[in-house]
Specification:
- The chain contains eight helices and eight strands.
- It is of the alpha/beta class.
- It has an eight-stranded mixed β-sheet.
- Helix 4 links the parallel strand 5 and strand 6.
Length: 251
Protein backbone atom coordinates (compact mmCIF):
# COMPACT_ATOMS: atom_id res chain seq x y z
CA UNK A 1 0.00 0.00 0.00
CA UNK A 2 1.32 3.44 -0.89
CA UNK A 3 1.89 6.08 1.79
CA UNK A 4 -0.97 8.44 2.55
CA UNK A 5 -0.01 11.90 1.27
CA UNK A 6 -3.32 13.55 2.16
CA UNK A 7 -2.31 16.16 4.74
CA UNK A 8 -5.69 16.47 6.42
CA UNK A 9 -7.38 13.10 6.30
CA UNK A 10 -5.59 11.49 9.22
CA UNK A 11 -5.99 14.43 11.57
CA UNK A 12 -9.60 15.46 10.98
CA UNK A 13 -11.61 14.36 14.02
CA UNK A 14 -14.69 12.16 13.59
CA UNK A 15 -17.85 14.11 12.75
CA UNK A 16 -20.32 14.21 15.64
CA UNK A 17 -24.11 14.40 15.40
CA UNK A 18 -24.35 16.04 18.85
CA UNK A 19 -21.69 18.73 18.66
CA UNK A 20 -20.69 21.50 21.04
CA UNK A 21 -18.71 24.24 19.25
CA UNK A 22 -15.35 24.94 20.87
CA UNK A 23 -14.65 28.42 19.53
CA UNK A 24 -15.29 31.84 21.05
CA UNK A 25 -17.18 34.94 20.01
CA UNK A 26 -15.57 38.29 19.26
CA UNK A 27 -17.00 41.41 17.64
CA UNK A 28 -15.60 43.26 14.65
CA UNK A 29 -17.24 46.12 12.77
CA UNK A 30 -20.48 45.43 14.64
CA UNK A 31 -20.55 41.76 13.66
CA UNK A 32 -20.58 39.02 16.28
CA UNK A 33 -17.99 36.57 14.99
CA UNK A 34 -17.33 32.92 15.74
CA UNK A 35 -13.55 32.54 16.12
CA UNK A 36 -11.76 29.21 16.32
CA UNK A 37 -8.40 27.65 15.54
CA UNK A 38 -4.88 28.93 16.07
CA UNK A 39 -5.03 32.56 17.19
CA UNK A 40 -1.37 32.99 16.20
CA UNK A 41 -1.68 31.53 12.70
CA UNK A 42 -0.61 33.52 9.67
CA UNK A 43 -3.29 31.72 7.64
CA UNK A 44 -6.92 32.79 8.03
CA UNK A 45 -10.11 31.35 6.61
CA UNK A 46 -13.27 33.47 6.57
CA UNK A 47 -16.48 31.43 6.42
CA UNK A 48 -19.63 32.94 4.96
CA UNK A 49 -22.45 30.83 6.32
CA UNK A 50 -25.71 30.00 4.55
CA UNK A 51 -28.97 31.91 4.91
CA UNK A 52 -29.77 30.09 8.16
CA UNK A 53 -26.90 31.75 10.02
CA UNK A 54 -24.90 30.19 12.83
CA UNK A 55 -25.49 26.44 13.17
CA UNK A 56 -23.66 23.72 15.10
CA UNK A 57 -23.00 21.85 11.86
CA UNK A 58 -21.20 24.80 10.26
CA UNK A 59 -19.37 25.58 13.49
CA UNK A 60 -18.19 21.97 13.63
CA UNK A 61 -16.77 22.45 10.16
CA UNK A 62 -15.09 25.68 11.26
CA UNK A 63 -13.50 23.80 14.15
CA UNK A 64 -12.27 21.13 11.71
CA UNK A 65 -10.42 23.85 9.78
CA UNK A 66 -9.16 25.30 13.04
CA UNK A 67 -7.71 21.90 13.95
CA UNK A 68 -5.62 22.09 10.76
CA UNK A 69 -3.81 25.15 12.10
CA UNK A 70 -5.91 27.90 10.53
CA UNK A 71 -7.34 30.93 12.27
CA UNK A 72 -11.02 30.78 11.34
CA UNK A 73 -13.62 33.56 11.39
CA UNK A 74 -17.35 33.24 10.80
CA UNK A 75 -19.07 36.65 11.06
CA UNK A 76 -22.79 36.95 11.75
CA UNK A 77 -23.83 39.08 8.78
CA UNK A 78 -27.52 38.70 9.65
CA UNK A 79 -26.98 39.95 13.20
CA UNK A 80 -28.97 37.24 14.90
CA UNK A 81 -31.86 37.27 12.43
CA UNK A 82 -31.20 34.68 9.72
CA UNK A 83 -33.90 33.15 7.55
CA UNK A 84 -35.88 30.63 9.66
CA UNK A 85 -35.36 27.08 8.42
CA UNK A 86 -39.13 26.61 8.61
CA UNK A 87 -39.44 28.85 5.54
CA UNK A 88 -37.27 26.61 3.36
CA UNK A 89 -38.37 25.29 1.04
CA UNK A 90 -41.24 27.83 0.91
CA UNK A 91 -44.63 26.13 0.81
CA UNK A 92 -46.97 29.09 0.30
CA UNK A 93 -46.93 32.31 -1.68
CA UNK A 94 -46.48 34.16 1.59
CA UNK A 95 -43.42 32.06 2.42
CA UNK A 96 -42.00 32.64 -1.06
CA UNK A 97 -42.38 36.38 -0.60
CA UNK A 98 -40.63 36.25 2.78
CA UNK A 99 -37.70 34.40 1.22
CA UNK A 100 -37.52 36.87 -1.67
CA UNK A 101 -37.63 39.80 0.76
CA UNK A 102 -34.81 38.27 2.78
CA UNK A 103 -32.57 37.89 -0.27
CA UNK A 104 -33.38 41.44 -1.38
CA UNK A 105 -32.84 42.87 2.10
CA UNK A 106 -30.54 41.34 4.75
CA UNK A 107 -28.91 39.02 2.20
CA UNK A 108 -28.39 41.57 -0.59
CA UNK A 109 -24.83 41.04 -1.92
CA UNK A 110 -23.70 44.70 -2.19
CA UNK A 111 -24.29 45.56 1.46
CA UNK A 112 -22.78 42.29 2.65
CA UNK A 113 -19.68 42.73 0.52
CA UNK A 114 -19.24 46.11 2.20
CA UNK A 115 -19.76 44.49 5.60
CA UNK A 116 -17.15 41.85 4.72
CA UNK A 117 -14.60 44.52 3.83
CA UNK A 118 -15.30 46.40 7.07
CA UNK A 119 -15.02 43.18 9.05
CA UNK A 120 -11.68 42.36 7.42
CA UNK A 121 -10.28 45.80 8.20
CA UNK A 122 -11.40 45.64 11.84
CA UNK A 123 -10.22 42.09 12.54
CA UNK A 124 -6.83 42.73 10.95
CA UNK A 125 -6.09 45.35 13.59
CA UNK A 126 -6.06 42.62 16.26
CA UNK A 127 -4.63 39.74 14.25
CA UNK A 128 -1.73 41.63 12.72
CA UNK A 129 0.27 38.46 12.02
CA UNK A 130 -2.11 37.21 9.31
CA UNK A 131 -0.54 37.07 5.86
CA UNK A 132 -2.59 34.57 3.85
CA UNK A 133 -6.35 34.58 3.33
CA UNK A 134 -8.91 32.04 2.15
CA UNK A 135 -12.68 32.31 1.94
CA UNK A 136 -15.36 29.63 2.16
CA UNK A 137 -19.05 30.07 1.43
CA UNK A 138 -22.19 27.95 1.62
CA UNK A 139 -25.40 28.49 -0.36
CA UNK A 140 -25.89 32.28 -0.31
CA UNK A 141 -22.45 32.55 1.25
CA UNK A 142 -21.01 30.90 -1.83
CA UNK A 143 -22.25 33.83 -3.91
CA UNK A 144 -20.69 36.32 -1.51
CA UNK A 145 -17.39 34.40 -1.42
CA UNK A 146 -17.30 34.29 -5.23
CA UNK A 147 -18.06 37.98 -5.65
CA UNK A 148 -15.37 38.79 -3.08
CA UNK A 149 -12.81 36.77 -5.06
CA UNK A 150 -12.48 39.16 -7.94
CA UNK A 151 -9.40 40.74 -9.42
CA UNK A 152 -8.38 42.37 -6.14
CA UNK A 153 -6.30 39.23 -5.42
CA UNK A 154 -7.18 39.21 -1.71
CA UNK A 155 -7.57 35.45 -1.38
CA UNK A 156 -5.16 32.62 -2.11
CA UNK A 157 -8.05 30.18 -2.31
CA UNK A 158 -11.85 30.29 -2.59
CA UNK A 159 -14.12 27.36 -1.77
CA UNK A 160 -17.89 27.16 -2.19
CA UNK A 161 -20.17 24.31 -1.18
CA UNK A 162 -23.71 23.78 -2.51
CA UNK A 163 -23.62 27.38 -3.83
CA UNK A 164 -26.66 29.48 -4.68
CA UNK A 165 -27.12 31.90 -7.59
CA UNK A 166 -24.35 30.32 -9.67
CA UNK A 167 -23.51 32.69 -12.52
CA UNK A 168 -20.77 32.05 -15.11
CA UNK A 169 -20.25 35.80 -15.42
CA UNK A 170 -18.88 35.75 -11.86
CA UNK A 171 -16.36 33.08 -12.83
CA UNK A 172 -14.66 35.33 -15.36
CA UNK A 173 -13.25 37.56 -12.60
CA UNK A 174 -11.81 34.82 -10.39
CA UNK A 175 -8.02 34.98 -10.13
CA UNK A 176 -7.22 32.38 -7.45
CA UNK A 177 -7.68 28.59 -7.18
CA UNK A 178 -11.35 27.70 -6.73
CA UNK A 179 -13.05 24.68 -5.19
CA UNK A 180 -16.73 24.09 -5.97
CA UNK A 181 -18.59 21.21 -4.34
CA UNK A 182 -22.12 21.03 -5.70
CA UNK A 183 -25.10 18.96 -4.58
CA UNK A 184 -27.62 17.12 -6.75
CA UNK A 185 -29.96 20.13 -6.44
CA UNK A 186 -27.86 22.77 -8.21
CA UNK A 187 -28.57 22.76 -11.96
CA UNK A 188 -25.80 20.74 -13.59
CA UNK A 189 -25.75 23.05 -16.62
CA UNK A 190 -25.11 26.06 -14.37
CA UNK A 191 -22.23 24.31 -12.62
CA UNK A 192 -20.68 23.26 -15.93
CA UNK A 193 -21.06 26.73 -17.43
CA UNK A 194 -19.41 28.27 -14.37
CA UNK A 195 -16.48 25.88 -14.59
CA UNK A 196 -16.00 26.57 -18.29
CA UNK A 197 -16.10 30.33 -17.70
CA UNK A 198 -13.18 30.27 -15.26
CA UNK A 199 -10.02 31.73 -16.83
CA UNK A 200 -7.86 28.94 -18.26
CA UNK A 201 -5.04 29.41 -15.75
CA UNK A 202 -7.48 29.45 -12.83
CA UNK A 203 -9.43 26.41 -14.05
CA UNK A 204 -6.18 24.43 -14.22
CA UNK A 205 -5.70 25.03 -10.47
CA UNK A 206 -9.36 24.51 -9.52
CA UNK A 207 -11.68 21.61 -8.73
CA UNK A 208 -15.40 21.31 -9.53
CA UNK A 209 -17.18 18.26 -8.16
CA UNK A 210 -20.78 17.20 -7.59
CA UNK A 211 -21.97 15.10 -4.67
CA UNK A 212 -24.77 13.52 -6.67
CA UNK A 213 -26.35 11.76 -3.70
CA UNK A 214 -26.52 14.81 -1.43
CA UNK A 215 -29.12 17.57 -1.02
CA UNK A 216 -28.50 21.30 -1.09
CA UNK A 217 -27.25 22.11 2.39
CA UNK A 218 -25.70 18.75 3.28
CA UNK A 219 -22.45 20.33 4.57
CA UNK A 220 -23.87 23.26 6.53
CA UNK A 221 -27.01 24.19 8.50
CA UNK A 222 -29.29 21.68 6.74
CA UNK A 223 -26.96 18.75 7.36
CA UNK A 224 -28.68 15.85 9.09
CA UNK A 225 -25.79 14.35 11.00
CA UNK A 226 -28.04 11.67 12.49
CA UNK A 227 -28.23 10.25 8.97
CA UNK A 228 -25.22 8.03 8.34
CA UNK A 229 -24.92 8.89 4.66
CA UNK A 230 -25.15 12.63 5.26
CA UNK A 231 -22.71 12.37 8.16
CA UNK A 232 -20.19 10.53 5.97
CA UNK A 233 -20.54 12.99 3.10
CA UNK A 234 -20.35 15.94 5.49
CA UNK A 235 -16.98 14.69 6.68
CA UNK A 236 -15.78 14.09 3.14
CA UNK A 237 -16.73 17.60 2.05
CA UNK A 238 -15.00 19.29 4.97
CA UNK A 239 -11.95 17.11 4.39
CA UNK A 240 -11.83 18.27 0.76
CA UNK A 241 -12.16 21.88 1.88
CA UNK A 242 -9.39 21.45 4.47
CA UNK A 243 -7.03 19.89 1.94
CA UNK A 244 -7.78 22.61 -0.58
CA UNK A 245 -6.85 25.34 1.88
CA UNK A 246 -3.78 23.46 3.09
CA UNK A 247 -2.55 23.43 -0.50
CA UNK A 248 -3.49 27.00 -1.40
CA UNK A 249 -3.55 29.17 1.71
CA UNK A 250 -1.08 27.36 4.00
CA UNK A 251 1.33 26.23 1.28
Amino acid sequence: MSANTNKACCSIPPVKSDYQPKGDYEEYAGLKTYVTGDRNSKNVIVIIYDIFGFAPQTQQGADILGDQGFLVFMPDFFKGSPLPQSLYPPKTDEDKQKVQDFFAGPAAPPSNLTALSEFAAASSKKYTQVRNHGILGFCWGGKIATLASDKRDVFKGTAVVHPAMVDPNDAKNITNPYLLLASKDEPADDIKAFEQALPDDVRAKSTVKTYGDMHHGWAAARADLNNDDNKKRFGEAWEEVANFFLKTVAA
